[in-house]
């Protein structure tokens, strides 16, 4: 059985807080890799600092083929490829581009006017209504403050937390979800 030489984007699960080190090792090997980073203000007891953190904790995206799976898995910090039925899941190119656009918008502080003033509740389904992730639905996990939320979105069969402006989501009601499924 021959290996596919075509390259596709895949997600690899890595050890906690090892994302940047894994990225550097992959790039040193010549593997095209992508780690979406966002700048956040962090508060410690003695100082405040801007730090770059992964958008998706414990995940790095790699552009690879089947021949490169074993060398990638041998990188210190890589745990496994995200798989479905024992095959590495292909992340569509348009999802990678959407993530890159989202990070770019986030870094430029792109703000959107408040489109919905309803109170959202943790655990509620929400739909992203603007930006590169428009149309995706996820479950609201955390309301960080009046303007920022953490929504879990299904990406490559894994629920990934996305930090997003409250103005970019609208509630999805269970009755609406039933209609969509029918």
What does this structure look like?
The protein is α+β, with helices and mostly antiparallel strands and 182 residues long. The chain has 2 domains: 8-107, Alpha-Beta Plaits (2-Layer Sandwich); 125-181, SH3 type barrels (Roll), CATH 2.30.30.30. 21% of the residues lie in helices and 38% in strands. The chain has helices at 19-28, 69-73, 93-107, 174-181; strands at residues 8-14, 32-34, 37-43, 48-54, 59-64, 78-81, 83-84, 87-88, 90-91, 125-128, 137-143, 148-155, 158-165, 169-171. A hairpin with a 4-residue loop joins strand 3 (37-43) and strand 4. The N and C termini lie far apart (41 Å).
What are the SSEs and their pairings?
Blueprint: E1 8-14, H1 19-28, E2 32-34, E3 37-43, E4 48-54, E5 59-64, H2 69-73, E6 78-81, E7 83-84, E8 87-88, E9 90-91, H3 93-107, E10 125-128, E11 137-143, E12 148-155, E13 158-165, E14 169-171, H4 174-181
Antiparallel strand pairs: 1-5, 1-6, 1-9, 2-5, 3-4, 7-8, 10-11, 10-14, 11-12, 12-13
Annotation keywords:
182 residues, alpha+beta, Alpha-Beta Plaits, 2 domains, five-stranded antiparallel sheet, 4 helices
CATH-defined topology of the largest domain? Alpha-Beta Plaits
Q: Considering the protein shown, what is the CATH homologous superfamily of the largest domain?
A: NusG, N-terminal domain
- Structural Rg: 18 Å
Rounded mean pLDDT is 82
- Largest sheet, strands/sense/barrel: 5 strands, antiparallel
> Any idea of the CATH class of the largest domain?
Alpha Beta
Given as residue ranges, the uncertain stretches (5+ residues, pLDDT < 50) are: 111-117
The CATH architecture of the largest domain can be named as 2-Layer Sandwich
Q: Care to count the β-strands?
A: 14
By secondary-structure content and strand pairing, the structural class works out as alpha+beta
Query: Tally the helices: what do you get?
Result: 4
Count of structural domains: 2
């Amino acid at each position: 059985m021959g290996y596919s030489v075509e390259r596709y984007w895949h997600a690899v699960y890595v050890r906690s807080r090892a994302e940047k080190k894994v990225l550097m090792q992959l790039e040193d090997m010549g593997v095209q890799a992508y780690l979406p980073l966002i700048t956040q203000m962090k508060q410690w007891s003695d100082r405040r600092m801007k730090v770059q953190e992964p958008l998706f904790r414990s995940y790095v995206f790699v552009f690879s083929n089947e021949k490169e799976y074993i060398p990638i898995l041998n990188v210190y910090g890589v745990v496994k490829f995200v798989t479905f039925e024992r095959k590495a899941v292909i992340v569509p190119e348009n999802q990678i581009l959407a993530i890159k656009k989202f990070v770019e918008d986030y870094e430029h502080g792109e703000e959107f006017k408040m489109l919905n003033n309803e109170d959202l509740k943790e655990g509620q389904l929400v739909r992203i209504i603007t930006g590169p992730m428009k149309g995706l639905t996820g479950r609201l996990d955390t309301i960080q403050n009046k303007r920022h939320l953490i929504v879990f979105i299904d990406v490559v069969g894994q629920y990934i937390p996305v930090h997003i402006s409250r103005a970019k989501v609208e509630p999805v009601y269970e009755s609406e979800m039933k209609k969509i499924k029918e």
